[in-house]
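[step 3/7] fold_predict: job queued, chain A
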Amino acid sequence: MAEKMTDEEWRAFVSDGTRTGKLSTVRADGSPHVAPIWFLLDGGELVFNTGKDTVKGRNLARDGRVALCVDDDRPPFHFVVLNGRAQLSEDLDEVRHWATRIAARYMGEERAEEYGARNGVPGELLVRVAIDTVLAMRDVAA
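[step 4/7] structure written:
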């Protein structure tokens, strides 16, 4: 039977390994846009990078509402959905710092600087989402 995850459990779950998040933003016409992202948690915030001129970047600049789903698609199935509102920064020192930290998670420490340099450039955004609500379930098919 499905059970709610504790705060500690869902934070460990979304931070485990190289799980990507599926980020939903709001298009100008109100319809959803979903895209996979690399991310980290920083206290009560979700942190990721995106290009200013991407669909995500344009959507977030106009309407900061987001939902992020992270799941384990293997039985007994677990998932976490985070909802919040994004704040954008173009501060290159911040963008590069977080791009490097995020890259360390997904590409390994040995390639973190390379990806930080690639993704920490003008035209990239640092996105911080203050997490407002969390739905976190484990053992959905148990």
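[step 5/7] annotate
The CA atoms of residues 95 and 126 lie 5 Å apart.
The beta strands are 3-4, 21-26, 32-37, 40-42, 45-51, 65-72, 78-89, 124-138.
exit 0
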